[in-house]
Amino acid sequence: MGEQIRLDKCLTMLGLGSRSGVKQLIRGGWVRIDGEIIREPERKLDAEQSRITVNGTAVEYKAVRTVMMNKPAGVLTAARDKKQRTVLDLLPPMYAAMGCMPAGRLDKDTTGMLILTSDGALAHRLITPGKEVGKTYEALVDGPFTQEAQARFAAGMHIEDADGTFDARPAKAVLLSPEGAQSLVQVRITEGKYHQVKRMFAGCGLTVLQLKRTKIGSLNLDPALKPGDFRELTEAETALLEQEETDG
Question: Residue 33 — very low, low, confident or very high, per pLDDT cuts 50/70/90?
Answer without folding.
Answer: very high
